[in-house]
Design a protein that fits this description.
This protein is an all-alpha fold. Helix content is about 70%, strand content about 0%. The protein has helices spanning about 55-65, 65-75, 75-90, 95-120, 125-130, 135-165, 170-180, 190-200, 205-215, 215-225, 235-250, 250-265, 270-300, 315-325, 325-360, 375-390, 395-425, 425-430, 435-460, 465-495, 505-510, 530-555, and strands at about 35-40, 40-45. Strand 1 and strand 2 (about 40-45) form a beta hairpin. Helix 2 packs across helix 8, helix 13 (about 270-300) packs across helix 14 (about 315-325) and helix 15 (about 325-360) crosses helix 16 (about 375-390).
Length: about 550
């Protein structure tokens, strides 16, 4: 058993005798080590006693935060637009897609919370150290670009909500930007977490709207449990909307944010089970919000002239106000403001954390602004620039929103590939490494995400794409993924390429095992299958992202 950073503060008689020497921690910021100071309680660093009864609930309350914030933060402006578009155009017929995303959300976010608790190192830094400078730089650059555009969409959502409420743009956007910046500037993670959890509670404003709409519960339940396509709807349009739902529910920034926030909150492997409960609560809230939006939007627009003619979330607020009631419209607009603020804060933090990790800057919400200038400069810079873009007359806001959805779909597979490789690496995760079942499931998810990404990219470049073309991509992609996987597996078997199989860990190891310092890790051992994925992915990302950006630039030029 390795000597754990938690044990360093224990009296000598209480320390483990199994470890001959102290292991250097991998944490890059000294503020990432210490007591867990959560919104609803504190767990002292040396507190390793067993939890029973009431103490379990108190521990959960202290740990609560990362999973709930990242999930509710993902029900942001893009989610409001996508879920309500699906409902305004097709009723509740696509609500079943949300249930399919639950295991994907849990598996992805469970992997990053394990990485955060066990390694103490952010996602971007691990990619840099295990796969080289190219991929480390690539992960940060694409994250910075995509997150910057995503934050712009949050301010677009704020603008739509304030417009419905009759608040002048300059005041609404300006005050929101100040609130988002002030929330992180206290030098106390607990204060930010309290602010974020107030916003999480505010997201429940969608529930009263649902109750006021009186949706047909049996129909919604049927559509939730029985997958089907809308009758007489173009297959290509429906497929692209499903892809948009996937892209807005599972986003790259979530991986970077939760891993770094778990580290910043000082959560260790001992508390991973509690953090998983936190994650499940967050998933429950995001699904509740998504189902509510689709249900009450379907009620508001079914049978009206606006049915099938989605414009934006602002127009949805107007429709809800007209067909359900002014109070419902106001609640929806306030919930949208709430969602945009927590989304902008979380996305900006994920970027600041990643850049701080890669550049070895001080990057913690426990630090005051004077003690982590670079970290806060990145955060504030993203907010100020995004707000300025939305306030700029004539800015192509609709085009930027579409660009975010497209680029998120293109870049998500690469983030998931690195996540899988890191979580299969026993040098990094030890007893917390993926099981074979988790690896297989994640591999299938990656293959599906890549195919959906290809379809999304093709639809941007060729708007007239048909359902036949989409199904051809799905069939061809499935066959190609199967052939590549089987071929690489055969080569690995013949060459005797194996990951470390002989290491055995006890239950006690899972409580205390931490990744060694980065410079003590052995080189990453990539199989032929791993390298095949990386080569294919590198080529695809360069081509797809490049073509999408060219297409977006052309659309900004008059006459295209």
């Amino acid at each position: 058993m390795t000597y754990n950073i938690e044990e360093a503060t224990l009296p000598a008689p209480m320390r483990s005798t199994a470890a001959p020497k102290q292991q250097r921690g991998a944490q890059l910021d000294s503020e990432h080590v210490g007591d867990i100071r959560g919104c609803f309680g504190t767990i002292f660093m040396h507190d390793t006693r067993p939890r029973t009864g009431w103490s379990r609930l108190k521990t959960l309350l202290a740990v609560l935060g990362p999973g709930v914030i990242v999930m509710v933060g993902d029900n942001d402006a893009g989610a409001f637009g996508t879920y309500t578009q699906a409902a305004q155009n097709y009723g509740t017929t696509l609500v079943w897609t949300l249930l399919l995303l639950i295991p994907v959300l849990f598996v992805n976010q469970d992997m990053v919370l394990r990485l955060g608790a066990v390694t103490g190192v952010g996602h971007a830094r691990l990619i840099l150290e295990r796969f080289g400078k190219f991929w480390g730089a690539f992960s940060v650059i694409d994250l910075f670009l995509l997150n910057g555009l995503t934050i712009v969409t949050e301010f677009i959502g704020l603008n739509l909500a304030f417009d419905y409420l009759g608040v002048p743009k300059i005041w609404g956007i300006g005050i929101s930007a100040l609130v988002i910046m002030a929330s992180v500037s206290t030098g106390d993670l607990r204060r930010f977490e309290r602010f974020a959890l107030v916003l999480v509670f505010g997201s429940l404003l969608l529930v009263p709207v649902l109750l006021m709409a009186h949706p047909p519960v049996p129909q919604v339940a049927h559509d939730l449990l029985v997958p089907r396509f809308p009758a007489n709807a173009p297959v290509a349009d429906v497929m692209l909307l499903i892809i948009a739902i996937v892209g807005t529910t599972v986003a790259p920034w979530q991986l970077f944010f939760q891993q770094s926030y778990v580290i910043d909150k000082r959560i260790t492997p001992r508390f991973i089970p509690y953090e998983r409960i936190d994650l499940w609560i967050g998933i429950g809230l995001i699904i509740l919000g998504a189902v509510a939006m689709m249900a009450f939007t379907a009620v508001a627009f079914t049978g009206t002239p606006e049915y099938g003619h989605f414009k934006d979330a602002g127009a949805v607020a107007v429709g809800i106000g007209q067909h359900i009631g002014r109070t419902a419209g106001v609640f929806f607009a306030v919930a949208l403001i709430d969602a945009c603020i927590i989304g902008a804060a979380a996305v900006s933090l994920s970027t600041a954390y990643a850049i701080g990790d890669v550049l070895s800057m001080r990057h913690s919400l426990h630090r005051k602004m004077s003690d982590a200038k670079g970290f806060y400069a990145v955060y504030f810079g993203l907010i100020v620039i995004s707000a300025a873009v939305v306030l700029t007359p004539g800015a192509p806001l609709g085009l930027l929103t579409n660009a975010v959805q497209t680029l998120a779909g293109v870049l998500l597979p690469s983030a998931t590939v690195f996540l899988l490789l890191l979580c299969n690496d026993k040098a990094v995760l030890g007893p917390w490494a993926n099981t074979r079942g988790t690896s297989i499931f994640t591999g299938v998810v990656i293959a599906i995400l890549v195919m959906l990404s290809v379809i999304l990219t093709a639809s941007v470049l060729f708007p007239a794409i048909s359902g036949v073309h989409i199904f051809a991509i799905l069939a061809g992609g499935s066959l190609l993924a199967l052939v590549l996987s089987l071929g690489a597996r055969i080569i690995d078997t013949r060459q005797g390429s194996r990951r470390e199989q002989g290491i055995r860990f006890t239950a006690a190891d899972r409580l205390t095992w931490r990744m060694p310092a980065l410079d003590e890790l052995p080189p990453a051992r990539l199989t032929v299958l791993d390298r095949t994925w990386l080569v294919v992915l590198r080529g695809y990302l360069v081509v797809a992202a490049g073509l999408v950006l060219v297409r977006i630039i052309l659309l900004m030029v008059p006459g295209h």
